[in-house]
Amino acid sequence: MKRSISSQQSATCERKPLLRNVQAIAVASAIAFMAAGGSAHAQADVATESAMVKLIRGLIDSGALKKDVGEALLAQAQTEHIAAQQALRQAAAPVASAQPKVEPGDVRVPYVSQAVRDKIRDEVKGQIMAQARSEGWAAPNETPEWTKRIRVEGDVRLRNESRFYSDSNDNLGMVDWAAINNGNAYDINPNSNTVLPPQLNTRQDRKNQWKARARLGVIADITEQTSAGVRLATGNDDSPVSTTQTLGGGLEKKSVWLDQAWFSHQPADWLKITGGRFGNPFYSTDILFSNDLNFDGLAAQFNRKLSNERVSLFGTIGVIPLEYSSDKFPGNKGDKMSSETKWLLGAQVGANWKLDQTNSFRGAAAYYEFKNVAGKLSDPCYLYSGQDTACSTDWTRPAFMQRGNTLMLLRNIALNPLDPASTAQPQYLGLASKFRLLDLNARWETRIMNGYPLRLDANYIRNLDYDADEMFARANGGIVNNFDGSGGTDRSAFRSGGNAYMLQATFGKPAPSEKGEWNMMASYKYIEADSMPDGYNDSSFHLGGTNARGYTLGTTYAFDKNTTLSGRWMSSKEVHGQPYAIDLLQLELNTRF
């Protein structure tokens, strides 16, 4: 019983601000009545009270007020209304004495127009509903408040893809180096191994392959400054650059991966800090970072307008761990290697400039340093004797690679003095070059031909650490690819480079979303072999990686809200080395929610 009384008192206290509003309006109403026609007869008080009671009861009946809250409000309103009426009678006494004498049987009722009565009623109801909504008790069946801070978003894509290989492609020597690094080391000694290494397809077309992509994310706005998100995605494997799933496979179930898991905080309007696994925080193109690539680690982003409001500055600093050395390496020794971590350290600064109503420009410069990603020649490794099952620098091979980068043999394998010619030499591969990148981006957006949007993009990348002589010195003669095809494997036959660039034009809406919107695009890419690590860029153009050049033509049409049909034709070939040309046709149906 005590708990019930206490709860009622608490509810009453919480409604006092609202009751004071009701009381104030009631007092104002009574004053208006009195001013309109002097003191009112007793029947007027009853009528006024009756209207107030009807109003509150009407709110209870409509569900706008919970029953228990409404009844408490009704009781309090009646009590305070009686007190207010008594005060008004006392204040009106002098006025009443000055009025003409009322004979028995006479009734004087002041006239209040319907418009005034409606206004008073609406003001009372409006104030009650406003406070009810703000306190969450307006509608008993309303969705809980916390669900309003949760957003669900995702997309589904269906793709038909055909790959066409040139008949002039080299059919020999296109080694799948990534397969070697992902499997058992490959024995390069022809005296102890007569099996060819894994080979890439270079001539057999692959037509009408159906692929799908599905992504589903949940974002929670914890407060106005703090949010968190989780996203799942499909994918054939754990590749960081693609979430596309090939269909078929005997109708087997498809894999789902953790694509994102992040936490962000915005301590100021112009600064946001994000940690975990999150989308690309840098302004870049897909010749460097695939559109499906997510980053692990920590990133700080700033964006601030200047005083003239037409120019804003933005920037990003990122600390991204790419790979940790295994805690158990080497597995057959009690003495483990010291910790080694591969890092991506990135810093970018740029500006958006709104030139006028139809023209805007964006420019940015970024610096990326990939630390500890270059391969290292191991200490002498005595595999033949059983002393070693791993060599000291096996950890330097890339966790993921596509194709194009210059590679070097990692293992300094000691030969068996009793049979040196037949000593097995199983090898892994590492990156021969170091990578420090300068990345320059520019974008101009305008309108032409009766207001149609036109966007022009340009991107230039230079590997500041590219040095062919230094690569040969590090490899100690162990460079294995990117030669001119003459059969030579020395420095004079080596072909590579440290530059990349892209030019792209998009006519129409850059990202169609409303029914009837469309665009057409054309781009050209030129990516030398060691201009960047080959593991992180677009996996479609030239089937991913570097040492590629060619063009892309595409179009997109939105035939319904957030639902598009698009097509792309990519034609590419190698920059240097063995002939390797690929044409790719992709037809896609995309929808997002």
Structural summary, described in words:
- This protein is α+β, with helices and mostly antiparallel strands and 593 residues long.
- It is 21% helix and 36% strand.
- It contains 6 helices and 23 strands.
- It has helices spanning 2-37, 42-62, 67-97, 114-135, 177-182, 468-475, and strands spanning 150-165, 186-187, 206-221, 226-234, 245-246, 256-268, 271-279, 294-305, 311-324, 341-354, 360-371, 380-381, 407-409, 412-413, 426-427, 429-431, 435-448, 452-463, 499-508, 518-527, 548-560, 563-573, 582-592.
- Strands 1-3-4-6-7-8-9-10-11-17-18-19-20-21-22-23 form a 16-stranded antiparallel beta barrel. Strands 2-15 form a two-stranded antiparallel sheet.
- Strand 17 (435-448) and strand 18 (452-463) form a beta hairpin.
- Helix 1 runs parallel beside helix 3 and helix 1 (2-37) packs antiparallel against helix 4.
- The longest helix has 36 residues, at 2-37.
- The radius of gyration is 37 Å and the shape is elongated.
What characteristics describe this protein?
593 residues, alpha+beta, 16-stranded antiparallel barrel, two-stranded antiparallel ribbon, disordered N terminus
Write the layout of secondary structure elements.
Elements (H helix, E strand, L loop, with lengths): L1 H36 L4 H21 L4 H31 L16 H22 L14 E16 L11 H6 L3 E2 L18 E16 L4 E9 L10 E2 L9 E13 L2 E9 L14 E12 L5 E14 L16 E14 L5 E12 L8 E2 L25 E3 L2 E2 L12 E2 L1 E3 L3 E14 L3 E12 L4 H8 L23 E10 L9 E10 L20 E13 L2 E11 L8 E11 L1
Parallel strand pairs: 12-14
Antiparallel strand pairs: 1-3, 1-23, 2-15, 3-4, 3-5, 4-6, 6-7, 7-8, 8-9, 9-10, 10-11, 11-17, 13-16, 17-18, 18-19, 19-20, 20-21, 21-22, 22-23
